[in-house]
Structures are given as C-alpha cells and as structure tokens.
Design a protein that fits this description.
There is one protein chain. The chain folds into three domains: 3-97, Beta Barrel (OB fold (Dihydrolipoamide Acetyltransferase, E2P)), CATH 2.40.50.100; 129-172, E3-binding domain (Dihydrolipoamide Transferase), CATH 4.10.320; 227-438, 2-Layer Sandwich (Chloramphenicol Acetyltransferase). The protein is built from nine helices and 22 strands. It has helices spanning 90-93, 129-138, 159-172, 207-212, 225-240, 253-270, 277-290, 334-349, 423-438, and strands spanning 3-7, 17-23, 30-31, 36-41, 46-50, 55-60, 67-69, 73-78, 86-88, 201-203, 221-223, 243-251, 296-299, 302-305, 311-313, 315-317, 320-322, 325-326, 363-366, 386-390, 394-400, 403-417. The strands form six sheets. Strands 12, 15, 18, 19, 20, 21 and 22 form a seven-stranded mixed β-sheet that branches. Strands 3-6-8-1-9 form a five-stranded mixed β-sheet. β21 and β22 (403-417) form a beta hairpin. The protein starts with a strand and ends in an 8-residue tail after the last helix.
C-alpha cells in the first residue's frame, strides 16, 4: 500500500496553528482507522484526532507540547508495514478546506444507545475505541464500565485496566467490587467536582524562577493552552466592561419536586439524566424574550441587539472551563433544550467539540452551585453584556404568607455590563428569571 501523512488539521477558518498535547500511540504501534491517535489544543478548543487510516505509526515528526502551523506533517503511518509512496488520506485532506477533522459525534440523545457500538455510557465517562472493542468482545455489560478503575491520564481506563477487569470477572464469575474512590475523567455542568488542576497545569522547571521559588516548598506549573486563553479572556473582560452584579433569591421547590417525580421516566425515555440545568435554561430563554437588551453586544457607541438566542453553558472539563453554545435556543422547547445541553456536555467531556460549538454565544449561564457555592459573581463572557450565575440549592426556613416553611432555595446572580444594562433592567430581567422558575408548570410530563 503506502505511507500516509498525518497533518495538523485546521479546526476552523480562523485557526492558524495547533499544539500537540498528547500522542496516544508511539512509533511502532499499530492503529486502526478512526482510532484516537493524538490530542491537539488550539486557542479555540481541545480535540482528539482520529487516525486517517489503519496501519503502523512509523514516524512522529512533531513531539508533544510543540506548536506548528495547520497542514504541517506531524507523523507518518505505514498502511502495510512495508513502506511505499507517501499519500494523504481523504479524512486528512479535508483540513485543506478548513473543515474540522473530528471523530464521529455521539448519537442524538433521543435515540436509544445500541449495545453493539457504545460510545458514551450514561455516566458520560470517556472510553477509547480500543477499550470499547474489548468490552464488546468479552461481553462486559456497559453498566459495569464505571466499576473499572482507570490508571490513565485523568482516570481513563486503559487496555491494561479493562483486561485486568475482564480477568478478575472471569475468575470470580461476577463483577468485581467497585473501587473506593473511582477516578472519572473530567466534570461537567451537572457533575459534582472538576478535574484537579494538575491535569491542566503541569510541573515545569524554570531556572530563573527556581531561585526565587525553591523546591520543595514551591512547585512551578505551566498553564495549558486553554487555561492561558481563558485567563487572557477574563482579564480582557474586566478591562472592557464595568461589572455590576445583582443577586436574587429563588424558590426552587416546584422544580425540585418536578425533577424528582419525573427523573426515572425521563432517563428511560431519553437515555440521560434529568438535571436542573434545562429548567434554568428554559427560564432564561423566556426572560431574554421579555428583555432582549441583555442579549446584546457593544461596539464603540453602538449597541448590537441580537434577535436570536445563542446560550453559552459553562462546562468544567479536565482541560479547564469551556463554554459550548446552544444555538437558537429560542426555537427549542424544554425537551429540546435538555437534549442540546446534554449533547454539548457529553461532547465537551469526550473532546468532540468543534470550534463552531463554542462560538457565537449571546448570553451565558454558569452553574457554580454544583460545587456547593451559594453565591458568586461571574465575569462577563465577552463580547456579551450579561452572565447568570446559579448557586447551590439548599433547603432553608423561609416565611411565606406570614407562615414559616421549609423550601428548596437558591441564589441567582446576574453580572452585567453597566455601559448599557443599568440596575433597573438588570433587576427586572433577573426577577423575570425567578418568576419563570417559580411558576414552572408541574403538570409537564415526559
């Protein structure tokens, strides 16, 4: 056959270069077509890149942590192990047309998962194609995958891990007991904890800093590409917009009760868990329709009001904070919003986002309540003019109609750009969000 060039893909028209963060294969390893070959990072998004062909990785031209222009040859595959002329596989050729090179996305949430080709289990934990192949071959139920302790980066399950699990399963005749503290790669908008900082910031040795900050009392960490871009974006936002915050209390009792009563039926029908996120997203979309100025941007002395709603949802992943966007949220009902949010969260965890998925947002929601935070003041996601932060839901004693009651309560914070959103508009918008939450129709069923 032939040797195949692997090139740095162009992940969007505005992307000029990429950084190789991890090679999943080493020279001499055999790789299947579409099996994850490497991970790259750009100033827009991190992605896992599939192999353009089946063969043996015979040469790595660009090592990890090196940044090169798009379409640069970064490795060679030998499709028959015997050498031959160099060609480009069709999936790599698409980089020349600025189309993202990406793995096949997961099935829409509305379709039930097929046992013979699972991609992402209900928990959202990522498994490589090789691990899934072993699972299918050995007949391990998908429901048991989360019991497998992972020794790979970020707690990922490696070939060695799954084979050890299979062997233990054959020996005992049943699924081994789960580890005391299973390592799950990443965390999302609806999960409990983010990945540790060590995943996005790695130890480095900088002589000029080592003198000032000597070991072992100090450790010098290198920010990842995504972390650097996020830091720059936040600093630029504070310098651009005069931030003002308004905080309202919201009674989540009706929503909590509705979610509890419908969670099982929803998961059976849709294949993923019902979280509080779609309730909040639905309330925000309806409020923006009433107060469209919060869905704007500023250019000089001009206000650009958007007649569509692209809702950004902050997601904590193993590579840092990412804000994928639900496009045209105003056109979706509650179920459509729930499906869109789950799809984006899943593809964020598994590095299946494209640059288009994180661009074009007009308003952002940040749910810091999943970490137990009661009240926070988020930074505006430029060029937007407002961001909603939602705190943890806690049962508290409140007074209703001069009577004491126990209700599920939360604090919502709206940070807004005081150049065009004043306190009156910010307060009225936030109060509308609260009313939409508290008046949610409990008769809605799935």
């Amino acid at each position: 056959m032939a040797r195949v060039e692997v090139v740095m893909p162009q992940m969007g028209e505005s992307i000029a270069e990429g950084t190789i963060t991890k090679w999943h294969k080493k020279v001499g390893d055999r790789v299947k077509k579409d099996e994850t070959l490497l991970e790259i990072s750009t100033d827009k998004v991190d992605s896992e890149i599939p192999s353009p062909a089946a063969g043996v990785l015979v040469e790595i031209v660009v090592e990890e942590q090196k940044t090169v222009p798009v379409r640069t040859v970064i490795a060679y595959l030998d499709t028959n192990g015997g050498g031959g002329p160099v060609i480009q596989a069709q999936s790599v050729e698409t980089a020349k047309t600025a189309a993202p090179v990406q793995p096949v996305p997961p099935k829409p949430p509305s379709e039930p998962a097929r046992a013979e080709a699972p991609q992402v289990p209900a928990s959202g934990r990522f498994y490589s194609p090789l691990v899934l192949s072993i699972v299918r071959t050995e007949g391990v139920p998908m429901s048991e995958l989360d019991l497998v302790p992972g020794s790979g980066e970020g707690g990922r399950v490696t070939k060695k891990d799954i084979l050890a699990y299979v062997e233990a399963r054959k020996t005992t005749g049943k699924a081994p007991s789960p580890p005391v503290q299973p390592l799950v790669a990443g965390a999302t908008f609806a999960s409990s904890k983010p990945a540790p900082l060590g995943i996005v910031a790695k130890p480095v040795d900088v002589p000029e800093l080592r003198t000032k900050y000597p070991a072992p009392h100090h450790e010098i960490l290198q920010m990842s590409n995504v972390l650097q871009k996020m830091a720059d974006h936040m600093v630029r936002s504070v310098h651009t917009s005069p931030h003002v915050a308004a905080i309202h209390e919201v009674d989540m009792t009706t929503v909590v009760k509705h979610r509890t009563e419908n969670a099982s039926a929803f998961e059976r029908k849709e294949g993923f868990k019902l979280t509080f996120t779609p309730y909040i997203v639905d309330a925000v979309v309806k409020a923006i329709k009433n107060y469209p100025l919060v869905n704007s941007s500023v250019e000089g002395d001009k206000i650009i009001r958007k007649n569509f709603i692209n809702l950004g949802i902050a997601v904590a992943s193993e590579n840092g904070l990412i804000v994928p966007v639900v496009k045209h949220a105003e056109e979706k009902n509650f179920l459509g919003l729930a499906r869109s949010v789950n799809d984006l969260a899943t593809r964020t965890r598994t590095k299946r986002l494209t640059p288009d998925d994180i661009q074009g947002g007009t308003f952002t929601i940040s749910n810091f309540g999943v970490f137990g935070t009661m009240i926070g003041t988020p930074i505006i996601n430029q060029p937007q003019v407002a961001i909603l932060g939602t705190g943890a839901i806690k049962k508290r004693v409140v007074v209703i109609d001069d009577a004491i009651a126990i209700r599920s309560m939360a604090f919502f914070t709206l940070s807004f750009d005081h150049r065009i959103v004043d306190g009156a508009l910010g307060g009225m918008f936030l109060e509308q969000v609260v009313k939409n939450i508290e008046s949610f129709d409990p008769q809605i069923r799935f």
